[in-house]
Structure formats: structure tokens, C-alpha cells
Amino acid sequence: MPYVGIGMQQRGSSLRSHRMVRAYAALLGGVLVSLFLVGLGKMQTDKGVPLPRQESLEEIQDQIGRALQDAIQGENIKTNLRAITREPHQAGTKANERVAKTIEKMYKDAGLQKVHTLTYDVLLSYPDWDRPNTVSIRNRAGRAVFTSKGVSEPILPDEQGAPHAGHQWLAYSAPGTVEGDIVYAHSGTPKDFERLKKMGIDATGKIVMMRYGEGFRGDKVAYAQQHGAAAAILFSDPAEVAKGARDDVYPKSVWMPSEGVQRGSIMKLNGDPLTPLYPAKPGAYKSKTIDEIKEDGIIPSIPALPISYDTAYEILSRMSGRPVPSDWQGNVNVTYRLGPGLRDGYKTVVDVKSSLETRHVHNVVGYLPGQDEEDRYVILGNHFDAWVYGSIDPNSGTAILAEVARAMVETTKNTTWKPARSIMFAAWDAEEYGLLGSTEFVEEFVSQLGSRAVAYLNMDCFAGNFSLNVNTIPSMRDLAIDVAKRIPNHLEEQVHLGRKTLYDTWARAFPGKDGQPDMQIPGGGSDHAGFLTFGGVPVIDFNMVNATRNSYPLYHTLFETPFLNEHLYDKADFAMHRTIGRYWAELARTLADSPVLPINVTRIAEEMGGNYVVELRKTLNTLPANPNLLEAKQQVDFLEKAAAKFLVKAQSFAEHAKHVREALPENPYDQRKLRGVNERIMMTERCFLNPRGAPGAPQNRHVLYSISEKDSYSGKIMAAVYDAIDDYVDSTDKKKAGRMVAEQISIIYHSVHCATNTLKHFF
């Protein structure tokens, strides 16, 4: 078969016969179906009447895209959401297993093929459902003058009234009861703890209280433990989650009510911590013990719990010590103080009950096979486990993905279109605990993904209804933009302002350089992480967000139930959910059907020479002159020259790829040159994998785009290089540390050299 993937029957009388449809499906681009109807080389009938103009490949693909978009229905997404969010469903529970079976049935009913589950045995964490975690305040006599409930009460009992739904807890917290003095450490970042120390406050043996925001909650607890804390408390400050009037909160608005609490994981690793780098298949050897992962700081050895801002008030209003710096003051209605301790000799007591258990988790996958390159996969993924009901995180995405699957299969039935490459749908389990389901999948199939996966498209959940937001790597940015220009804007007020497409609002909301929307490097907060940082697979992680691009106020709370989606975020018949589905589907279809993969490796070369090397040189030049940095600076010189060669070769390769694409209609049955071009595009991306991983983080194998060691949510460019520079600054052995900087830069150099060689015809 020629490279097609576009067998959709065209509208119009000229393509009504089955013979014509088959002929058109056998051609590509500018090849004319008239050659098959009126004799080879004839462009008109025997009577000299011109044949109708035949549509180009691009026009046909545009028709397919519109048909697919029209097939996605908001009402179906709403039905899916209701079916998935009937009960709280944490990973490893029977309730979540029921959700997995519901999704499996949705995929089978949609018509996906080879639908099945993949099971892993992973370490999970649970509270004591019968005895909630609490924080208490005791007077000098040891009597409790305040004790938190440890449970958020339902506001809409019909949706939120399941037993134990309101429990307030953090997964992987150590159990225990700690009584002591409390210290306020703002957002719990390294800079905050350093500042606290400079103000004369020692966290050793103290209970450290911190706000959510400015980083991953697990990093906050880890930093507190590193500074000697005996326990940790996290709370959501009204400054971030309740910016309106005190009564302008859920269910009147999207702002968090005073009893709301953000749950979450505080493990500092992606994947099962007992089987690092290898899949946690049932019966597989556990290379780590629980004691070892505690010693390594992967899970904390101190108790930690989240509290509401009502409970935070009870603590903050009693704290002693001097007022916090002005930029540390929040919006709980009291003057924040540093501590240590409470007035009148009162003590704070943290009581956490938790357990660690190995349980089964189940990924659900299904396929829409490709008709030309069945062994090439475009992967769409979302997780389905939740901290409570999960109507936004993650099941807004789960419901949309199931509808995209249904709409794609429907489009193949209502037209003659079949995707050229296979499209895989994946529902991941145990993401909330630390990306466990997706990471174990990548670890199991990393070799196959390296040679067969075209791209991974992740949509965890929406976080607002203001604009599209895309996190991706440079080679995928053009695709993200081009597809956004094809998706109609669902916001009527934006359309009235002339912003007719998803792209128009996006470009205006988050402007970046060169007039294009700003797109950040993907971080570690969702299931794309393993595909990119461990597998080297290009990713797009996208969602709809609010104007600040921050998380939504009710994140990981009891109040994420369908009412929130239907009545506060997407009141126009799930138009936003539908738009997300359209964008997701069109990204997948474009990657599946484009003869030449729409992955622009030239963008990597441009960023390398025009940005990354320049910034690296600036960073090194800002450090005090030291002969121990000479080798590192020499490696930057080599890297700069290699980047220039990479850019020249990438540009010439782009011209070659364009020529191959344009020449394909001359012999559409010969895909060898096309396959060769696409192989080199895919393998160029894999050149940036270091099989040894980063120092101290072997799971972070991507040398350009990986996860920051300082913030597990944030992506970082050349993380291993900059971490080595940070270590050099702090090191007393400058010679050894300087050599490590040089080594990490040289690894980038070798990756760039690999990419250049991959794009060549000959070595």
C-alpha cells in the first residue's frame, strides 16, 4: 500500500463510486484519480470536457479533521464524567478497579481494538480511614484547647457524601504523633529555609508550617526534614485559593471554602520506589526496601499532614515571635509570625496515622490500528485515579479521552478514513502517587517505545476556562501552533473580539517570542514525564488554564465533583471539554496521517546554538575566575561548534525531507525514502538520551529536557549541567566539582554530535 491514511470518501459527485474511492485511497498528494478512470495520462473525457479539479491531500485531510471534530460531543463527555466520578477512587482500591473496568468497557464499546489492562504491583500509602489525622493545640496543663476534625464536611451531600471521602491526608507520610513548637517557613523552598536561618530561626526539632505553592509539596516536606523538622504541616493560603470575598467561595464560585484541603503525594520519585528503573510486574524482584527509600529521602521519615485555612487560623493566631517579612504575609486574617512556638507556652501536636502497602494497579490501553504503519504509535494518555472524586483532576481528561476514542472510531465508520499510523489510547493508574502507572509502562516497554513511538500527547485535566496552555519541547511547537489554528474558539466573547480560533486567544493570553504563544518545557507533574525524560519520546502536555496558569483553587479537594464542571467551569454544554477533545484528536490525527512526521528537529538545533549554549556560557562567565573551570569552558567551545554543525545539517535535512514529500506522488507505492526520513526524525530525538541518566538521578536520562532537582514539578533545560554548576558553587573541592561540570557539558556535546550524524546520509 502507498502511504495514505486518508481514505475518507470525498463529498461531491466525482467520488461517489467505490471504484473512485479505492483509487483515491491509493494515491497521495497531487496524484489525480482521473488517471484510473479515463486512461493513463488523460486529463479530460473523450469529448474534451475537463474533469472536475481533484482535491489535494491537504484538502482531504482538512475534511477528515472537520469530520472528526464534529463527531466529538459534549453531552457524551458529560455522561462519561458522571460514570467515572460516582465514588472516591484512590489507586489500589476496589473503587478504582471499578473505574478501570468502566473505562475498559468504554473503550471496547467505542470500537477500539486489543483493549486490555496492564497490571503492576507498586508501593502505595493510605490513612487510617476510621481515625482521621489531626492537629491539636494544648495548653500548659496538656489539655487540648483546639483539635482539627481531620475531615472536610460535604457541601453537596448527594455528590460528596461517600464514607471517608473528606479525609485529610498526604500519601507516604510517616505515621506518628509529634508535640512541639511550631515554626512558619512560608513556601518551604530552599531559599525560604535559608532566609529563616538568617533570621535566627532554627527548624531543628520543630513542627514546620508551610504554604502550598511555589513547588512540589513533597519537596517542601523533604526540605523541612533536611533542616531537622520533627513534623510538617501544609495549608492552602486564601491569598492563592480564595481571592474574593469570604463568602464568595464554593459552591457560589470556584474559590476554596475555609474547610477545603489539598491532598496529595509527598514521594520524591516517579514510579514504584521499590523497583527503580524496572517495571514492577507481579512477582518481580524488589531491589529496594522501605528503610532504604526512607534513608535515600524518597519518602519522608517525619509525619506530615494538610490542613484547611480555618485550621491554619487557629495556629497562626496563637503563634509567638516576630512578624514575618511582608512578602511572607498571607491572607488568613491574622498577622503571620515566625515562631518558634505559640503564646502562653502552648504546644502544637501533629497526629498522623498511615500505612504502606503493596497493591495492584491497572493501566487500560486500546488501539486504533494504522493502515500503513501499524508499528508506529501516536499515544494519547490521561490518568484515572483520584484523591477523592476527581471530576477535574483527572477525570475531566479521562471523560474527554474516551469520547475522542469513540469519535475517532465513528469517523472511520462514517467515512473511509483510517489513520496511517496506529493511535494508542492509554488510561494510567496511580498517577497521583507519583506517576506510577505510566512510569512502569515506560520502564517495561522502553525499547519498543524508542523505536516505534512517534509522540505522546498528555492531557491531565483542565485548570480553567481562559486559554489553551501547552508545555512541549521545541521540535513539537510548530505542530502545537498549527493544530490550534484549526480549532474553533468555544468562548463566544472571544469570537466577538475577532479571536475565532483556539490559537487566537492563546497567542494573546500568553505571548512569547517571535509573536508566538509562550510554551514552557514540560515538568514532572503528569504522565508525560517518563515518556520524555526516560524514553526520549517527544511529548505535548496541554490543558485549558486560568489567566495566571496556576492550579485551580479546588485542586485535590473533596469538592471536585461534576457540579464543579457543569455549573462553575463549563456551563455552555461542556463546550470547553469538547474543545479540548477536538485539539487532542487533531493533534493525534495530524501525527498519524502526515507523510513526513510534523516534528521539526531544526527547532532543537536553533535553540541549542541560539539559546542554550549562549545562556550556559553566560552562567559560567558569571562565576569567579578559577582554573578549575577552564575545562568546562573549553567544552562549551566544543559544544558551540557542534551546535553550529547541527543547525546546518538540520536545515539541509529539512530541505531533503521537503523534497521527498513533494516527490512522493511520482511513486506513491514506494515508501522507502519516506520511511528513512521519518526514522531519522525519530532517532534524532533519541540522541539526547544518556543511558546512564543524570548523576544521582538515573531515571532522568534526557540530557536537554528533564526534571529539576530543586522542584519536581518544573522542567529544566540541561538539568544535569546546571545541577553540576550549583554543586560546584557549594563545593569545597573545586577541582573535582569543576571536572563534573566539564563532563556533563561533554555529554551534551556527544548528544549533539549524535544528532548531526543521524541526519546525515552517510557517516
TrEMBL record:
Signal peptide: none annotated. Keywords: Membrane, Transmembrane, Transmembrane helix. GO terms for molecular function: carboxypeptidase activity. Residues 178-268 form the PA domain. Residues 636-760 form the Transferrin receptor-like dimerisation domain. InterPro entries: PA_dom_sf, PA_domain, Peptidase_M28, Peptidase_M28B, TFR-like_dimer_dom, TFR-like_dimer_dom_sf. Residues 363-561 form the Peptidase M28 domain. It comes from the Eukaryota. CDD domains: PA_GCPII_like (cd02121). The chain crosses the membrane at residues 21-41. It holds the Pfam family TFR_dimer. Belongs to the peptidase M28 family. M28B subfamily. This is Peptidase.
